[in-house]
Amino acid sequence: MCDWWVLRCAVQITNSQFKIKIKLQMESTTMVIYSVIFLAGTMGNGLVIYVTGCRMKKTVNSIWFLNLALADFLFTAFLLFTIISVSQEYQWHFGHFMCKLNNFVSVVNMFASVFLLMAISLDRCLSIWVVVWAQNKRTTRKAQIITAVIWVAAVVCSIPYATFRDLQTMQGKTYCTYSKKTPKFILTTFRFVMGFLIPFLVICASYVAIGVRARRLNRTRTRRSQRIIFSIVLAFFMCWLPFHVFHFMELKIETNPELFEIVKTGGPITLCLAFMNSCLNPILYVFMCDEFQRKLKQSICLVLESALAEDRLSLMSSRSLSSHLSRISRKSESAAPTERKGTGTSLNFTESKVLETGERETLSTE
User: Fold this and answer.
1) Contact between 26 and 268 (Cβ < 8 Å)
2) Is the distance from CB of 72 to CB of 109 less than 8 angstroms?
3) 342: buried, middle or exposed (CB in 10 Å: 19+, 13-18, 0-12)?
4) Domain boundaries in the chain?
5) Which residues pair with 166 in a beta bridge?
6) In what ranges is there compositional bias, type Basic and acidic residues (predicted)?
7) Which of the chain's ends, N or C, has fewer CB atoms near its CB within 10 Å?
8) H or E element in which residue 338 lies
9) Are 67 and 43 within 8 A, CB to CB?
């Protein structure tokens, strides 16, 4: 009996040590993935914001891409607070206001990003199927109004989530989580229906229609269009479905405690996938656009030209200084005695030839 008890205690200690080790590894892995998503998302979406906002002409597509990049940029930028929280065992040290603000901004930009993806899909579908209507009615003014409505709808949908977010203290540690009075089932169901189910059905239907139309209009680009469409739908499905599934599993923890370890381990991974979608959006929706690629190349060339222009100006200033010194020397030589005039002229002629040859060589190298 005593041996059995010792063996059981040893097994429990081994299991607890194994769980602690797995927990530490998961936290480290999650923090690394979050950091990569944070850097890639802010840089990629920041580049899209610069190109669409400063370099591209204002069109319906540029308005969609600008607002989508803005939503994804804020979505990934606020990931910094989550990274710091994960590094400190999910403790929250930023206060009550930032707890609510961080959740509010994240949920707002989640809804805004998903709604914008749905709007882009519908706009592309209508542009291909109803060409005449799109040419007459598809204006930048209406696109701006639609994006404003999308942002307002995202804010309204996000208010309940920030309302029930609060600080809780357990074992002397402070966490930013939902309060016990939160109607979790209603909020989870609402987020799934409005943030995934309806947009996913609309995106799928739109791109199926686009694929059918593309097959009829241009057979040479059918395979490329099908690959892009498949990538867009698959990325949206794979990034967001696990996130919502695990939130529904979280609701069953009280009745099924065995799900606690699964949710605790897989929850951060599903959140990584959800954040990763904001990094994939610039690639799938923007970088595949020919106009965006052209403007991006022009922007890079402009940066290089400006850098080279500074070097050119410094080179030109050194040349102007040398020519100024040569003119001074010629004036001094002309004022010299007549017996040195021929020698001075030949010297100046030789110096000017050297300068001219040097300038030609420099210009040829440029």
Assistant:
1) yes
2) yes
3) exposed
4) 8-302
5) 177
6) 330-342, 353-366
7) N
8) none
9) no
Element (DSSP H or E) covering residue 315? helix 290-334
Residue position matching structure tokens 């040290």? 93
pLDDT by 10s per residue, the chain, length 366 = 433 333 333 334 444 555 666 667 777 888 888 889 899 889 888 888 888 888 778 888 889 889 988 988 988 888 888 888 888 888 888 888 999 999 999 899 889 988 998 998 898 888 888 888 888 888 999 999 999 999 999 999 999 999 999 888 888 888 888 888 889 899 999 999 999 999 999 988 988 888 888 777 765 555 565 666 677 778 888 888 999 998 898 888 877 777 777 887 778 888 888 888 888 877 776 666 665 666 666 665 565 455 445 444 443 444 454 555 556 555 555 554 444 444 444 334 343 443 344 444 333 333
Name the nearest CA neighbour of 292 among 61, 87, 67, 106. Answer: 61
Q: Hey, what are 278's tokens?
A: 């904001």
Query: Quick one: how far is CA 209 from the chain centroid?
Result: 28
Give the three-state DSSP class for 80: helix
Name the CATH superfamily, with its identifier, for domain 8-302.
Answer: Rhodopsin 7-helix transmembrane proteins (1.20.1070.10)
Place of tokens 């002409």: 57
DSSP 283: I
Give me the amino acid identity at 202.
V
Q: Is 87 exposed, middle or buried (0-12, 13-18, 19+ CB in 10 A)?
A: middle
